[in-house]
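Milestone M4 deliverable, item 7.
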Amino acid sequence: GQEASVFAITDGTHYVTLAPAQDHKRVGDGDTGKNTGGMGAYAPAPLVTPSVLDAVRALVIEPMLRGLREEGTPFVGCLYCGIMVDDQGRPSVVEFNARFGDPETQAVLAVLEADVAALFASAARGSLNESTISNVALGYACNVVLASQGYPDAYEKGAVITGIDDAEADPYVTVFFAGTGQRGNDLITTGGRVLGVTARGTTLEEAVRRSYAACEKISYSTKMYRTDIAARAHS
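Output delivered:
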């Protein structure tokens, strides 16, 4: 099967599922090389069809929330469900986290039509109502991580980064900072995963194209990234 990530925002009783995502853990194209913190993601993931998402709700999210309530420890916040979907569309749990995921969140929130602050506030107040959320997924988003050559092993730091303003000249592109720092007037690399280049589109193909076009506009001497983010959507 394939892995996917489903995020549920919950007030302990009610919940809203956000756009399901798939990330890319391996450092190299074709899912080769070592595991990383994530080299890119896209949402919504076609792997998680409406019927698969219904199964995740019924078999994973609702039993988990109900069990926590029955134990007297209701969970309020973001429940990260890492799932494996088999060839018959049946989900199995890989892991739970009480947080968002990186880099999936950059793609998931990019397609969130609802007011994210209001959504979180209603969950915190215990007044979340799924019927009040008109549409949690608007279009598609692709996030490509720009990393440092050598990552996830040893890598050089201090490379000067340019081109971010050019990349963000496209109104559908947002560049998220990760392993970056300031040296004088220069933006420099300080980590293995340096930037997250996220683009939105009315189709997944459009989002992927915009993201990679933006990646080409950003330069630093140790730049490295995967060229096949979202390829699984067509496999």
